[in-house]
Amino acid sequence: LGILKENFLGFFLSLLGLLGMVIATLIPHWRRRAYGGSNIVTATGYIKGLWMECVWHSTGVYQCQFHRSLLALPMDLQAARALMVISCVLSVMATGVATVGMECTRICEGSRNKSTLSVAAGVAFILAGLLCLLTVAWTTDSVVRDFRNPVLPSTLKYEIGPAVFLGFVSSVLSIIAGGVFCLFCEDSQLRRPYTTRRATAVRPMPPPYELNGASNRNYAPSHLSASSSGYRIGDYV
After folding, report:
1. Helices (H), the chain
2. What is the mean pLDDT of residues 196-212?
3. Alpha-carbon distance 38 to 42, whole Å?
4. Neighbours of 84 (CB within 10 A)
5. What's the CATH number of domain 2-27+70-189, 1.20.140.150, 3.30.70.890, 3.40.50.300, 1.20.1070.10?
6. Where exactly are the transmembrane stretches of this chain (predicted)?
7. For the chain, what percent of residues have pLDDT higher than 70?
8. Segments making up each domain of the chain, as ranges
9. What is the largest CA-CA distance in the chain?
10. What share of the chain in percent tops pLDDT 90?
């Protein structure tokens, strides 16, 4: 029962981490900047993400535009895209492997590779979490350096958006889930061979010498019958 609780805990944390990674990858709230005009009516907010950038006006107008050219993007943005996509793909693959490797599932039931699959899923979750953590940490460092750069105009300075914080939380959840699958994985191979040996020991094969002894006992009654039913010579003398 203990291993089932640990499997459910790791699987639940991994699903939360996967959901957070996907949301953080898609939403444009990685960098944000607010600009206040002469009055509150002209206030405008700017947000930038991995795939699009949006402008929000205080009048309620919300406009978004996808990045038109991939090659025209900065190198850090291209790297962040690639790392987050790889992280999401690894999490999806690890979720499928963990589903097969969990002790509570009937897929590959009785197989000795369930514990190996659970460990492999845990390693994949840890790698996905590290990639996501690297991406959000890199973005945070870039935003902080640009914000503290005195040469850079204030119109080009952004602050950290909520997607970065969501990425931090998702990466930690994914790493914890991978640790649960790796550390608390029970080796089921230690139990299954014992059941097999006990089942084969129910009907042992008789050794060869018992068959020979049985055959000798089959011929013994002929000698006894001859000695008991016949008459001895001493009875007539």
Report:
1. 2-26, 75-101, 114-147, 162-183, 192-200, 208-229
2. 49
3. 7
4. 25
5. 1.20.140.150
6. 7-27, 82-105, 117-140, 160-184
7. 69
8. 2-27+70-189
9. 151
10. 33
